[in-house]
Amino acid sequence: MTEILLTIYKVLAYAIQIYSVVLIIYILMSWIPSTRETKFGKLIEKIAEPYLGFFRKFIPPLGMIDISPIVALFALSLISKGILEVFRMIILSSLR
Asked: Transmembrane region positions (predicted)?
């Protein structure tokens, strides 16, 4: 049972890290608008925009600066720490 929980924990941690990297790539692509028109750019947009769009509803841009991606990354970090901490507690309790 513990091995299964550890495997789920690791997969979740890697998935969150990969999604964070995808978000950062998407944010960096905004500096070069033509990159969003490529197939790769459209794929990254389909993956990242639903999550970032949620934050854009509540955080308007400040002039030409959009801080919602920063808040989105911070929120993802907090969410991942919370989820992973819950898994860690479950794993530790199952070892006792």
From this structure: 12-32, 58-79
Cβ neighbours around 27 below 10 Å, total: 17
CA–chain centroid gap for 84, Å, is: 14
Q: Report how far apart, in Å, the C-alpha atoms of 81 and of each of 1, 8, 42, 51, 55 are.
A: 22, 15, 29, 17, 19
Give the number of C-alpha atoms closer than 13 A to the C-alpha of residue 28, restricted to the C-beta side.
6
Distance CA 29, CA 27 (A): 5
Residue-wise pLDDT tens digits, 32-46: 878 888 999 999 999
